[in-house]
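Recap quiz, item 2
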Amino acid sequence: MRILVTGSTQGIGKAIAAAFVKGGHEVIVHCSKDIEKVEKIKKELGAFAAVTADLSDMTQTRGLYNKTGPVDCLILNASVQVKQSWQEITEEALDNQINVNIKSTLVLMQAYYPAMKEKGFGRIVTIGSVNQHRCHPMLSIYSATKCAVMRLVKNIAEEAAPYGVTVNNVSPGAIATPRNADVFNDVKLRAAVEATIPMGRFGTPEECAGIVEFLCGPSGGYITGADICVDGGLGL
Ligand SMILES: NC(=O)c1ccc[n+]([C@@H]2O[C@H](COP(=O)([O-])OP(=O)(O)OC[C@H]3O[C@@H](n4cnc5c(N)ncnc54)[C@H](OP(=O)(O)O)[C@@H]3O)[C@@H](O)[C@H]2O)c1
Protein backbone atom coordinates (compact mmCIF):
# COMPACT_ATOMS: atom_id res chain seq x y z
CA MET A 1 0.00 0.00 0.00
CA ARG A 2 1.04 3.62 -0.48
CA ILE A 3 0.81 5.55 2.77
CA LEU A 4 1.26 9.23 3.65
CA VAL A 5 2.12 9.98 7.27
CA THR A 6 2.01 13.70 8.05
CA GLY A 7 4.50 15.01 10.61
CA SER A 8 6.73 11.96 10.35
CA THR A 9 10.15 13.45 11.04
CA GLN A 10 9.99 12.60 14.75
CA GLY A 11 7.90 11.14 17.55
CA ILE A 12 4.71 9.21 16.88
CA GLY A 13 4.60 10.01 13.14
CA LYS A 14 8.12 8.70 12.63
CA ALA A 15 7.30 5.48 14.53
CA ILE A 16 4.17 5.01 12.38
CA ALA A 17 6.17 5.55 9.20
CA ALA A 18 8.88 3.13 10.38
CA ALA A 19 6.30 0.43 11.19
CA PHE A 20 4.72 0.71 7.73
CA VAL A 21 8.11 0.61 5.99
CA LYS A 22 8.93 -2.53 8.00
CA GLY A 23 5.62 -3.98 6.81
CA GLY A 24 6.77 -3.58 3.19
CA HIS A 25 4.67 -0.54 2.30
CA GLU A 26 5.52 2.54 0.22
CA VAL A 27 5.63 5.29 2.81
CA ILE A 28 5.70 9.01 2.10
CA VAL A 29 7.23 10.95 4.96
CA HIS A 30 6.38 14.59 5.56
CA CYS A 31 7.23 17.68 7.58
CA SER A 32 6.42 21.38 7.40
CA LYS A 33 9.36 23.12 5.72
CA ASP A 34 12.77 21.49 5.97
CA ILE A 35 13.19 19.22 2.94
CA GLU A 36 16.71 18.18 4.03
CA LYS A 37 15.37 16.99 7.39
CA VAL A 38 12.60 14.93 5.83
CA GLU A 39 14.93 13.54 3.13
CA LYS A 40 17.24 12.39 5.93
CA ILE A 41 14.33 10.57 7.62
CA LYS A 42 13.34 9.03 4.29
CA LYS A 43 16.87 7.65 3.94
CA GLU A 44 17.04 6.49 7.56
CA LEU A 45 13.75 4.61 7.35
CA GLY A 46 14.01 3.44 3.74
CA ALA A 47 10.78 5.30 2.90
CA PHE A 48 9.41 5.77 -0.61
CA ALA A 49 9.29 9.58 -0.84
CA ALA A 50 9.72 12.73 1.21
CA VAL A 51 7.58 15.87 0.96
CA THR A 52 7.07 19.17 2.73
CA ALA A 53 3.93 21.26 3.20
CA ASP A 54 3.24 23.73 5.98
CA LEU A 55 -0.19 22.64 7.20
CA SER A 56 -0.85 26.06 8.72
CA ASP A 57 -1.01 27.35 5.14
CA MET A 58 -4.03 26.03 3.24
CA THR A 59 -2.48 26.71 -0.20
CA GLN A 60 0.44 24.45 0.71
CA THR A 61 -1.94 21.96 2.33
CA ARG A 62 -4.06 21.73 -0.84
CA GLY A 63 -0.85 21.38 -2.87
CA LEU A 64 0.25 18.27 -0.95
CA TYR A 65 -1.98 15.98 -3.04
CA ASN A 66 -0.26 17.18 -6.23
CA LYS A 67 3.10 16.23 -4.72
CA THR A 68 2.10 12.71 -3.61
CA GLY A 69 -0.77 11.61 -5.85
CA PRO A 70 -3.39 9.26 -4.39
CA VAL A 71 -2.60 7.08 -1.38
CA ASP A 72 -4.26 4.02 0.15
CA CYS A 73 -3.77 5.22 3.72
CA LEU A 74 -3.77 8.79 4.94
CA ILE A 75 -2.36 9.15 8.46
CA LEU A 76 -3.05 12.65 9.77
CA ASN A 77 -0.56 12.86 12.60
CA ALA A 78 0.95 16.40 12.44
CA SER A 79 -0.37 18.88 14.96
CA VAL A 80 0.63 21.91 16.96
CA GLN A 81 0.07 22.33 20.67
CA VAL A 82 0.34 25.69 22.43
CA LYS A 83 0.18 25.58 26.21
CA GLN A 84 -1.74 28.64 27.45
CA SER A 85 -4.45 29.11 30.08
CA TRP A 86 -7.79 29.99 28.49
CA GLN A 87 -7.56 33.64 29.66
CA GLU A 88 -4.19 34.01 27.97
CA ILE A 89 -4.89 32.38 24.63
CA THR A 90 -3.64 34.63 21.87
CA GLU A 91 -5.33 34.95 18.50
CA GLU A 92 -2.13 33.76 16.81
CA ALA A 93 -2.01 30.56 18.87
CA LEU A 94 -5.73 30.03 18.35
CA ASP A 95 -5.45 30.40 14.56
CA ASN A 96 -2.35 28.23 14.32
CA GLN A 97 -3.91 25.34 16.23
CA ILE A 98 -7.20 25.64 14.34
CA ASN A 99 -5.39 25.74 10.99
CA VAL A 100 -2.94 22.88 11.53
CA ASN A 101 -5.15 20.65 13.66
CA ILE A 102 -8.65 21.13 12.18
CA LYS A 103 -8.54 22.96 8.84
CA SER A 104 -5.68 20.95 7.33
CA THR A 105 -7.35 17.71 8.47
CA LEU A 106 -10.50 18.60 6.54
CA VAL A 107 -8.61 19.92 3.51
CA LEU A 108 -6.45 16.78 3.28
CA MET A 109 -9.43 14.45 3.70
CA GLN A 110 -11.24 16.40 0.96
CA ALA A 111 -8.19 16.05 -1.30
CA TYR A 112 -7.39 12.35 -0.76
CA TYR A 113 -10.85 10.83 -0.24
CA PRO A 114 -12.23 10.97 -3.83
CA ALA A 115 -9.54 8.62 -5.20
CA MET A 116 -10.09 6.23 -2.28
CA LYS A 117 -13.83 6.24 -2.96
CA GLU A 118 -13.23 5.64 -6.67
CA LYS A 119 -10.91 2.72 -5.87
CA GLY A 120 -13.31 1.27 -3.30
CA PHE A 121 -10.58 1.14 -0.66
CA GLY A 122 -9.04 3.62 1.72
CA ARG A 123 -7.89 4.07 5.29
CA ILE A 124 -7.85 7.42 7.05
CA VAL A 125 -6.50 7.63 10.59
CA THR A 126 -6.34 10.87 12.54
CA ILE A 127 -4.18 11.16 15.63
CA GLY A 128 -6.20 12.72 18.42
CA SER A 129 -5.36 13.00 22.09
CA VAL A 130 -6.34 11.83 25.54
CA ASN A 131 -7.18 15.52 26.05
CA GLN A 132 -10.40 14.87 24.11
CA HIS A 133 -11.49 13.03 27.26
CA ARG A 134 -10.04 14.97 30.18
CA CYS A 135 -9.39 18.52 31.36
CA HIS A 136 -6.02 20.22 31.15
CA PRO A 137 -5.89 23.89 32.23
CA MET A 138 -3.26 24.80 29.62
CA LEU A 139 -4.71 22.92 26.66
CA SER A 140 -8.28 24.18 26.16
CA ILE A 141 -7.86 25.04 22.48
CA TYR A 142 -5.65 22.08 21.64
CA SER A 143 -8.27 19.80 23.25
CA ALA A 144 -11.08 21.58 21.39
CA THR A 145 -9.31 21.04 18.06
CA LYS A 146 -8.88 17.33 18.79
CA CYS A 147 -12.60 17.03 19.75
CA ALA A 148 -13.55 18.82 16.53
CA VAL A 149 -11.50 16.36 14.47
CA MET A 150 -13.21 13.47 16.25
CA ARG A 151 -16.62 14.80 15.16
CA LEU A 152 -15.31 15.14 11.60
CA VAL A 153 -14.08 11.54 11.75
CA LYS A 154 -17.47 10.21 12.87
CA ASN A 155 -19.45 12.17 10.27
CA ILE A 156 -17.13 11.29 7.39
CA ALA A 157 -16.81 7.65 8.51
CA GLU A 158 -20.55 7.12 8.11
CA GLU A 159 -20.59 8.56 4.60
CA ALA A 160 -17.40 6.75 3.51
CA ALA A 161 -18.32 3.31 4.87
CA PRO A 162 -20.22 2.02 1.81
CA TYR A 163 -17.18 2.81 -0.38
CA GLY A 164 -14.65 0.69 1.49
CA VAL A 165 -13.06 3.68 3.18
CA THR A 166 -12.66 3.57 6.96
CA VAL A 167 -12.01 6.67 9.06
CA ASN A 168 -10.78 6.32 12.63
CA ASN A 169 -9.08 8.31 15.35
CA VAL A 170 -6.31 7.15 17.69
CA SER A 171 -5.94 9.09 20.94
CA PRO A 172 -2.52 8.85 22.60
CA GLY A 173 -1.91 9.67 26.25
CA ALA A 174 1.45 10.92 27.51
CA ILE A 175 3.95 9.61 25.00
CA ALA A 176 7.73 10.08 25.17
CA THR A 177 8.35 12.21 22.07
CA PRO A 178 10.48 15.34 21.47
CA ARG A 179 7.32 17.38 22.17
CA ASN A 180 7.41 16.16 25.79
CA ALA A 181 11.17 16.01 26.20
CA ASP A 182 11.29 18.83 28.76
CA VAL A 183 8.89 17.00 31.07
CA PHE A 184 10.22 13.52 30.35
CA ASN A 185 13.83 14.50 31.08
CA ASP A 186 13.00 16.33 34.33
CA VAL A 187 12.89 13.70 37.09
CA LYS A 188 10.36 15.59 39.27
CA LEU A 189 8.03 16.67 36.45
CA ARG A 190 8.14 13.19 34.93
CA ALA A 191 7.24 11.57 38.26
CA ALA A 192 4.33 14.01 38.69
CA VAL A 193 2.91 13.09 35.27
CA GLU A 194 3.51 9.37 35.79
CA ALA A 195 1.61 9.55 39.09
CA THR A 196 -1.53 10.48 37.09
CA ILE A 197 -1.23 7.54 34.68
CA PRO A 198 -2.80 4.27 35.88
CA MET A 199 0.00 2.30 34.19
CA GLY A 200 2.53 4.55 35.91
CA ARG A 201 4.69 5.35 32.88
CA PHE A 202 4.85 7.28 29.62
CA GLY A 203 3.98 5.36 26.47
CA THR A 204 6.34 4.92 23.54
CA PRO A 205 5.73 6.13 19.96
CA GLU A 206 5.93 2.48 18.88
CA GLU A 207 3.00 1.63 21.18
CA CYS A 208 0.92 4.16 19.20
CA ALA A 209 2.10 2.87 15.83
CA GLY A 210 0.75 -0.66 16.40
CA ILE A 211 -2.92 0.33 16.49
CA VAL A 212 -2.52 2.53 13.39
CA GLU A 213 -1.04 -0.45 11.51
CA PHE A 214 -3.91 -2.62 12.76
CA LEU A 215 -6.57 -0.14 11.59
CA CYS A 216 -5.00 -0.02 8.12
CA GLY A 217 -4.47 -3.77 7.84
CA PRO A 218 -6.94 -6.58 7.07
CA SER A 219 -7.74 -7.23 10.76
CA GLY A 220 -8.95 -3.65 11.18
CA GLY A 221 -11.14 -3.59 8.09
CA TYR A 222 -14.48 -3.64 9.92
CA ILE A 223 -13.66 -0.76 12.27
CA THR A 224 -14.79 2.73 11.33
CA GLY A 225 -15.71 5.91 13.20
CA ALA A 226 -13.86 4.63 16.26
CA ASP A 227 -11.79 6.54 18.78
CA ILE A 228 -9.14 4.25 20.23
CA CYS A 229 -7.19 5.41 23.29
CA VAL A 230 -3.54 4.42 23.66
CA ASP A 231 -2.97 6.05 27.01
CA GLY A 232 -2.10 3.59 29.77
CA GLY A 233 -5.50 4.40 31.29
CA LEU A 234 -4.89 8.18 31.57
CA GLY A 235 -8.28 9.03 30.08
CA LEU A 236 -10.22 6.83 32.49
N1 LIG B 1 3.40 13.15 22.47
C1 LIG B 1 2.30 13.02 23.18
O1 LIG B 1 2.34 12.79 24.40
C2 LIG B 1 0.96 13.10 22.50
C3 LIG B 1 -0.18 12.92 23.30
C4 LIG B 1 -1.42 12.98 22.70
C5 LIG B 1 -1.54 13.23 21.37
N2 LIG B 1 -0.42 13.42 20.61
C6 LIG B 1 -0.61 13.69 19.18
O2 LIG B 1 0.18 12.78 18.44
C7 LIG B 1 0.64 13.43 17.25
C8 LIG B 1 2.16 13.37 17.20
O3 LIG B 1 2.68 13.92 18.39
P1 LIG B 1 4.26 13.97 18.66
O4 LIG B 1 4.44 14.23 20.11
O5 LIG B 1 4.91 12.81 18.01
O6 LIG B 1 4.61 15.33 17.85
P2 LIG B 1 5.97 16.10 17.66
O7 LIG B 1 7.13 15.35 18.25
O8 LIG B 1 5.74 17.50 18.13
O9 LIG B 1 6.12 16.10 16.05
C9 LIG B 1 5.20 16.82 15.30
C10 LIG B 1 5.37 16.55 13.83
O10 LIG B 1 4.37 17.34 13.16
C11 LIG B 1 5.00 18.19 12.22
N3 LIG B 1 4.37 19.51 12.17
C12 LIG B 1 4.22 20.40 13.18
N4 LIG B 1 3.66 21.54 12.70
C13 LIG B 1 3.48 21.35 11.38
C14 LIG B 1 2.98 22.17 10.33
N5 LIG B 1 2.57 23.43 10.53
N6 LIG B 1 2.95 21.66 9.08
C15 LIG B 1 3.38 20.41 8.83
N7 LIG B 1 3.87 19.59 9.78
C16 LIG B 1 3.93 20.06 11.03
C17 LIG B 1 6.45 18.33 12.69
O11 LIG B 1 7.25 18.65 11.57
P3 LIG B 1 8.22 19.96 11.60
O12 LIG B 1 9.51 19.46 12.16
O13 LIG B 1 8.32 20.40 10.20
O14 LIG B 1 7.56 21.00 12.47
C18 LIG B 1 6.73 16.94 13.27
O15 LIG B 1 7.13 16.05 12.25
C19 LIG B 1 0.08 14.85 17.30
O16 LIG B 1 -1.12 14.91 16.59
C20 LIG B 1 -0.18 15.07 18.78
O17 LIG B 1 -1.18 16.04 18.99
C21 LIG B 1 0.82 13.38 21.15
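The radius of gyration is 17 Å.
Strands lie at 2-5, 26-31, 49-52, 73-76, 122-127, 165-172, 227-230.
End of item.
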